[in-house]
């Protein structure tokens, strides 16, 4: 045992500053380094005891929330993060109808305008390219709350934070990401990008007809991701693959109800990926490991057995709770505290 020169009390301000996210946008989880993740997760762990009671780090600061697509979890937890930090929130939950976007205002002007009223913006939008083009017009940091099929980094972050809290780190961690439509699985891909940076092993399971978007593949390859891919496999082969991992992540279906054709195609094909409680119990008996089931939610009954809700394998509702402290750490890092 020895006292070292860096012995000092822990400090939330120092952890937030060390993320080096102040004034920056959050688009892709491959934009962060391992060190930044370490500081972000440490800050989130320090904020976690306050995720229900709140504290006063961001008095007078305002989040502008623009959700051009439906959302419950992302909008509520991003807003709650700012509220729990002691700041305020201005929300437009249907800007395509209720804001000046409905009068033809460009996304660039919209972002520049909302920047005047807020210290940070969270935006969900169906078109990744449109937001990427408009982004330079914002004069405050912007969080992607889900853009197109490519990016949903705060979902990926909360998934990473859940894994970090469950396993204490990422060394040796193997994560299965399974969907009948990897072409639309922006939450799973965001999780994969973070896992790639942290050195975890990614096991993709999907269908050849719905491939991973090229933007995502390039980001994963650029990050040196350790990954394997399994396509068009049977349900029992899927269970065998899952048995080699610690977590199984289901990105769900992000297609809105007004596109029944695409939704029905997802629902029809996801049946081959169905996970039962019995299968998880059989894997545990064989390997001694409980595979944690993660889902970005909302879920559909054709994806997995809801009996898992009351088992040790359920992580999907716990993810939601962990989403608040990690979003608190993210917002405070991007805005900065004095
Ligand atoms: N996971 C997720 O993005 O959920 P919402 O669509 O409810 O925000």
Any overview of this molecule?
There is one protein chain. With 338 residues, this protein is of the alpha/beta class. The chain folds into 2 domains: 17-151 and 323-331, Rossmann fold (3-Layer(aba) Sandwich); 153-320, Aspartate/ornithine carbamoyltransferase (Rossmann fold, 3-Layer(aba) Sandwich), CATH 3.40.50. It contains 13 helices and 9 strands. It has helices at residues 12-18, 34-47, 73-84, 95-98, 107-117, 128-134, 153-167, 186-198, 214-222, 235-242, 260-270, 277-287, 316-335; strands at 62-67, 88-92, 120-125, 142-147, 174-178, 201-206, 226-231, 247-250, 292-295. The strands form 2 sheets. Strands 7-6-5-8-9 form a 5-stranded parallel β-sheet, with helices on both faces. A 4-stranded parallel β-sheet has the order 2-1-3-4, sandwiched between helices. Strand 5, helix 8 (186-198) and strand 6 form a beta-alpha-beta unit. Helix 3 (73-84) crosses helix 13 and helix 7 (153-167) crosses helix 8. The protein is globular, with a radius of gyration of 20 Å. The chain binds phosphoric acid mono(formamide)ester (CP). Phosphoric acid mono(formamide)ester binds next to helix 3.
What's the short version?
By secondary structure, this protein is α/β, with parallel strands linked by helices. The chain has helices at residues 12-18, 34-47, 73-84, 95-98, 107-117, 128-134, 153-167, 186-198, 214-222, 235-242, 260-270, 277-287, 316-335; strands at 62-67, 88-92, 120-125, 142-147, 174-178, 201-206, 226-231, 247-250, 292-295. It folds into two domains: 17-151 and 323-331, 3-Layer(aba) Sandwich (Rossmann fold); 153-320, 3-Layer(aba) Sandwich (Rossmann fold).
